[in-house]
Design a protein that fits this description.
Layout: E1 4-9, E2 15-21, E3 24-30, H1 37-49, H2 52-62, H3 66-71, H4 76-87, H5 90-100, H6 104-114
Antiparallel strand pairs: 1-2, 2-3
Helix pairs in contact: 1-4, 1-5, 1-6, 4-6
């Protein structure tokens, strides 16, 4: 059975195509816009800190203090901690991505790019 492709409008300027091959749907992304991992980490941090219980959970799980967080904003390890926090809890990952206007996979990709 040959795959069939159906164009579908994506969010925020993305265009997607769904390929159906038997029972498997594969999403192909085009027009991928790469976001700077440091910028994305700061946007994600703003989202995390906007909710007091979530902010407290972030500090508790990362071991960061408000002072170390403030002092380390440009530190890749702090940026990685922000993105790791989101990647470790799918509901937060999805909600943060939606609030920022990106796909959740872009947060995970940004986290990987911090290690390079």
């Amino acid at each position: 059975m040959s795959p069939k492709t159906f164009p579908v409008s994506g969010r925020k300027g993305y265009s997607s195509a769904y390929r159906f091959c038997e029972n498997l749907a594969i999403i192909n992304r085009t027009n991928h816009i790469s976001i700077d991992p440091a910028t994305l980490a700061l946007q994600a941090l703003a989202w995390i800190l906007a909710d007091e219980p979530r902010a407290q959970r972030f500090l508790a799980l990362t071991g960061l203090t408000p002072d170390s967080l403030r002092d380390g904003l440009s530190d890749k390890s702090v940026q990685a901690a922000v993105l790791d926090f989101l990647c470790a809890h799918e509901p937060d990952l999805v909600a943060a991505a939606e609030a920022i206007g990106i796909e959740p996979v872009e947060i995970a990709t940004a986290r990987e790019r911090l290690d390079r």
